[in-house]
Amino acid sequence: QGESTYQPLKTYLLRGVACQGTEYADSSEGTKARKVLFDCMDTNKDGAIDKKEIPHMWKQFNLAYKSMAKELQTKDKKLTKDSFYQMLHYYDTEGDGDGSINYEEFSCLLQEVLDRVRP
């Protein structure tokens, strides 16, 4: 389901780790990359990542996170499926609470994942 976003997601996270705070995320390059990632995760192109698309999103985040942690030698920092789904629930609840992930909620989730892997 959907195209693989593993490599672009990994690239986004690595660039974010190389910067301090939200410097990359706030840049025009980071914003453009984040929008492309969101569009890839939103496989039915309805403007939200719904419950059917979330397993694909988890798979891509898991692959990117594991590969990046190995590259950065931060194997002790794990992104579990449970913690990922807890973050999804938190950002959806803090957002519009509709059960799907919109672009703003996705951006917050992406920043938290980035913060978790940052050395």
Q: What low-confidence regions span 5 or more consecutive residues with pLDDT below 50? A: none
Rg value: 13 Å
What's the count of strands?
0
User: How far apart lie the N and C ends?
Assistant: 32 Å
How many helices?
6
Shape: globular
| Beta-strand residue percentage | under 5%
**Fraction in helix:** 55-70%
Mean pLDDT across every amino acid position: 88
Most strands sheet: none
- Overall structural class, as computed from helix and strand content, comes to mainly alpha
Order of helices and strands: HHHHHH
Describe the model.
There is one protein chain. The chain has 119 residues and is mainly alpha-helical. The chain is globular. The mean pLDDT is 88.
Quick synopsis:
The protein is 66% helix and 0% strand. The protein is mainly α and 119 residues long.
Please give the structural blueprint.
Elements: H1 6-18, H2 23-26, H3 28-41, H4 54-72, H5 81-94, H6 103-117
What labels would you give this structure?
119 residues, mainly alpha, 6 helices, globular
